[in-house]
TrEMBL record:
Organism: Lynx canadensis (Canada lynx)
The organism's taxonomic lineage, starting at the top: Eukaryota, Metazoa, Chordata, Craniata, Vertebrata
Keyword Amino-acid biosynthesis applies: no
Leader sequence segment: 1-28
Full protein name: V-set and immunoglobulin domain containing 10 like 2
Keyword Cell inner membrane: no
Protein's gene: VSIG10L2
Amino acid sequence: MVRQRALHKPLSLLLLTPLCLLHRGASGQPHWTRRAPDEEATAIQGVRGGSVELACGSGPAPLVVFWSFTPLGSLIPRPVAVTNGAESKVEAGASALGAVSLWNSSLVLQELREGARGHFLCQALHAAGGQLHTTYSYLTLAVLVPVSKPQVRLSDPSPVEGTSVVATCAVREGTEPVTFAWRHQAPRGPEEDLVEVTGQLLQLDPVNRTHLGWYACSARNAVNRLSSDGNFLDVVYGPDNPVIMVEPLGLTEEGFWAGEGEEVTLSCGAASNPPCHYVWLRDHTQVQVGPAYTIASASRAHTGLYTCLAHNSRLDTHSQTTVRLTIYYPPEGQPSCSALPTLGAVTLVCAWQGGLPAARLRWEGPRGTGPAALSNVTWSHGTTQLPNGGIFTCAGEHPALALPALCRITLWEPLRSPTCWTTATVGDQFIMLSCEWPGGEPRAMLSWLDGQQQTLGTTSPSLAIHLLHTQDDLAGREFTCRGSHPLRVPDPHCRLLLEAPQVAVAKPQVSVLEGGEAWLGCALLGGTPPVQLLWLGPQRRQVEAGPSGFMLHPEGAQLHLSIRDTDPARHRGAYQCVARNALGNSSRSVLLEVLRYPAPPNVTISRLTYGRHRREVQLQWAVRGPGNLTGFLVQRRASVPSPGAGAWETAASDIEPESRGRRLGGLDPGVRYAFRVLALNHHTAGHPSEVKIPADPPFSAYPAVLGAAGTGVVVATVASLLVFQYAARHPGTVPCIEPPPAIPGVEPVQEATDAPVNVTITVTATP
């Protein structure tokens, strides 16, 4: 009963029970009773804002449980809560620990606060064996605080390269120990961990451009781990010495090169923060502002020094780099290949001069690759090693050319053999010996030899010329031209024998009739150097083709002279055919006789009458006597000669010798004409015929005209009879015609009987 009553005492009385266990120290304040040496406090950890349950020992449920709390650094316990199993009481001041509650004998702390960090004592009153005894549980609570989100703080966010920078990973709170980790990410690179740095501070001393970028840190303790946002460290530096690149890229010992005509771009870049500004100079003259300078079409004038100036406006610093740009250009044209004969060998020469740099030349032949050199390369071969028709190629390479330039040469011997001839200079002062052997590669070498096989002059390729003075006794002397070629064995030659000219004529005497064509023939029998053939006329003047009838007909070694329309007065005489060269002259004569034709026969006019309306005449003639006829000529003029009558004019010509008549028209009816006829014999005219005047033709009419005339006569007769009858009946009405009176002393005029009378008769005919 007593026990039960005790269990049901008010809670306020129970709270006083544990106090008997406390002693007062000298200060009069309560304190913990000392624990037995074997008693140890149980360590428990909780997280701020979290919850923790503190158990009060183990075993049967106690009658009364009393919880007290002693903060760290303090010796005074503070009541927290008490329970008797049925009721519980939490001290009001326990809210500093969090949300406090009891669960059976356990103390539950929710929304744990940092003030709960300290020592907890659980005193439990147990009844066992009819007696009361107390148990104690000692617990030490550690309240852990999570780390807050760290921040990276830079002592200088834009330091100059070479200075010192400190980065701090700042954490507002967090239970120690706190560990730190750092990360760095360059602007154009991956993120990397700075494993060598584990402290809260990151010392960059000295700072350089590799440190530029984003920095982030992370803080970690027993509760959590948080990372900061990145903070950008902008390191200011530069500009470094610029780096110049050239496109298309061509490197030389002195700098860069580009081909003539190409588009060339020079690019400049210098490490700098902030980015720098660029200026281009060519031979100390500004040509461009900006990082790139483009030459649209490079020429030789663009060769020179190019300087890139870099300027950092933030630091007001400068740097520069200078390079040399050389514009390459190939030699003009193509390589030239030639072959030079030497003693027992042939030297192939390939040349291609000019260009920058000099072109590299290389020989290639049927048996492989030959030597190489710049601008000029030679390759010698023994004559026994050279096939006829062998092809050799020279390739010229130049940096400015995409493909090599080629020239080829084919070795071949010239055809046939040397050809010799001679010519004389103007005035025949010198005789020129000429020898030619064209073709071949290399060209054949020619030289002149005299009769004693002594060399005259120098040896020359393909054509050899030697001059001889004509004052020397050269007639009958022989000269030899000898040719040599590495592919021809033995050496061929040709010979010349100098001699004065000789001529012959076809006929020493030629006869031709007047007006005919004469042919005089002349032939050259020999002569070296070349001979000039010409004809001299009877007056010893050179005959030339022209209107005088002379024609020259050269045919090889012959020169014929033809004379047309020969005339005894002009063409008759002795002609000379003359042959002339530098060594002498030769001539032969031809006598030309021009014979006249016999005189043509006489001609008489047998009939000459007018035609209708007197506008034409019909002429007939007859030939009397022998003679050779070639044609006739008819002439006319006015019938009565007078000062104004004019000379005879040709009425008809080119009349065939067989003709004996001609109708001539185109006459004026008001003019009386006289005609005559001449016989022609080639170019000789006979005596003119008698002069005659055309006569009127005898009258003739058509039958209709005759009928009309008869009718007219009948009518006229009837009319006359009627007139006479009327006159007889009426004599006074018809007038009489009396003769004119005679004048004394004057004889009567006699009427000219030959005066022309114009009579007009009108006849009307009725059919």
